[in-house]
């Protein structure tokens, strides 16, 4: 019988002997995944607001949007658990999918957009090497700059 490749190593170890440990580990993994996507979202928000003038420099907007996105994901996961109760490990797998669709996609789009805007900021400040490094590292390496350009990074 072919082994299911969806399972992680710890799932194969604990699925028969300790299902409660498996459930806890899977819950921890899904929560950690969601937190990592929220941190990517915070990075994108911070980068967008980095060059704005203001007292809070976008902190309030970052906190508000991050809490809103986290609440939206948590509401979707809770709704999933209510609708499909009891579901165990299958609901956690669905929570994993929801975190990828509801958190990872918006966070990665935001971070990419923020980096493009940061590139424009570097160009406006007369730092074309830094701007080039953000979007195309290969050209600066080909130019013999070691990928660091003149951005003040150690070579």
Description:
This protein is an all-alpha fold. The chain has one domain (16-142). Helix content is 72%, strand content 0%. The protein has six helices and no strands. The protein has helices spanning 9-14, 19-49, 59-83, 89-124, 128-135, 137-142. The longest helix has 36 residues, at 89-124. The N and C termini lie far apart (52 Å). The relative contact order is 0.10. The mean pLDDT is 79.
The total of beta strands comes to: 0
Question: What fraction strand?
Answer: under 5%
What's the overall average pLDDT, rounded? 79
Runs with pLDDT <50, length 5+?
none
Number of domains: 1
Please give the share of residues in helix. Answer: over 70%
N-to-C SSE series?
A: HHHHHH
Sheet with the most strands?
Answer: none
List the helices and strands and how they pair.
Elements: H1 9-14, H2 19-49, H3 59-83, H4 89-124, H5 128-135, H6 137-142
Helix pairs in contact: 2-3, 2-4, 3-4, 4-5
Keywords, separated by commas or semicolons:
single chain; 155 residues; mainly alpha; elongated
Please outline what is shown here.
The chain has 155 residues and is mostly helical. It has one domain.
